[in-house]
């Protein structure tokens, strides 16, 4: 049933869209049809994925796939690292079994395995067909030209820089609005490898975690397109119909070559994720140490997380989070923006089951599921400087705004999900 908490989330939809309109480059050119269509499309996709028995069974199967991937990955990790991987057969008596969940051994290797599988599925053309199917949906429903539509679809599964690779030769000819939209969508979604990692982190505290993470990445793409079009409106003259001849730098000689090269790409991602987390968490620890020298406020020491919670608590509330959970949720939003979504998911996974309402945890899963963070600004600058070097100065001028749009896109998605009847998700 529709209740006050659902109306609260509708306020979040209006707040996010209204804020983007207020800072738009051209407030007179508001895409009304796209705004209504994108929000309706998100709601329809959520209702279909969780309401239709057949699709709900597919999402349930996704959870089983995640469990299978995690179990299989642990077999490989245990073979290389032995009991350090957290196997039941430990040489010492365990006094705290929960401490055996080590991020480096439980989550990062999953990214490695999924990257290898993604390369294999691409070589077998399965993932390519799926990407082209989603590209056609975005082209028909959201009025995108063929090349940006394909790149938007590819971004959902491949990542924020990998997706645009598929239309590399078209990047110099895209309009400014389309280029901004691609960067924004890249920060609104996550890649297939990280989807599985996030689901692994949340599995113990959120029922159907894999289904929510998968749905979040898919339905955040329309939100990213919408907010990008509001902030940098479409240039109709520069976006004339353009035939699409899909290309990809990801061409493999054989299945073995796909697995080897996919593993190599995965290793790069794993090292980047691990190194980024070490550096950013260390920097925040330094700041917390400095803030700890100041007098306590309201009986508690000052910290970066506490400050972020105060700043983003109102945003969490309009998304549909109860006020008692809003400070924690606001802190998670701030951590996602400053420290990366990986850190935010880890911290949410560490919150006990009774420490946050299940509805709040569902909404926050959608709000956190995106690459919009400070580190991604550098990733996009580096990636697009290689893919479209002639447009580097243009990208430098829009990447921070794209990060804001990507961050708000996941908040819009969370608000749409919060406006849906809670019974749809089984809670």
What would the keywords be for this entry?
427 residues; mainly alpha; 19 helices
Briefly characterize the structure:
The protein has 427 residues and is mostly helical. It has helices at residues 4-22, 32-51, 53-81, 103-106, 108-123, 126-142, 146-158, 162-165, 176-188, 192-202, 209-231, 255-291, 304-318, 326-339, 341-349, 358-368, 374-387, 392-396, 399-419.
What does this structure look like?
It is a single chain. The chain contains 19 helices and no strands. The protein has 427 residues and is an all-alpha fold. The chain has one domain. Helix 16 (358-368) runs antiparallel to helix 19 (399-419).
Mean pLDDT: 82
What is the straight-line distance between the termini? 12 Å
Q: Indicate the overall shape.
A: globular
Class computed from helices, strands and strand pairing: mainly alpha
Q: Indicate the radius of gyration in whole angstroms.
A: 21 Å
How helix-rich are the residues, as a percent range? 55-70%
Domains, number:
1
- Secondary-structure element order, N to C: HHHHHHHHHHHHHHHHHHH
**DSSP summary, beta strand count:** 0
Number of helices: 19
Map the helices and strands.
Blueprint: H1 4-22, H2 32-51, H3 53-81, H4 103-106, H5 108-123, H6 126-142, H7 146-158, H8 162-165, H9 176-188, H10 192-202, H11 209-231, H12 255-291, H13 304-318, H14 326-339, H15 341-349, H16 358-368, H17 374-387, H18 392-396, H19 399-419
Helix pairs in contact: 1-19, 2-3, 2-11, 3-5, 3-11, 5-10, 5-12, 6-7, 7-9, 9-11, 9-19, 10-11, 11-16, 11-19, 13-14, 14-15, 14-16, 16-19
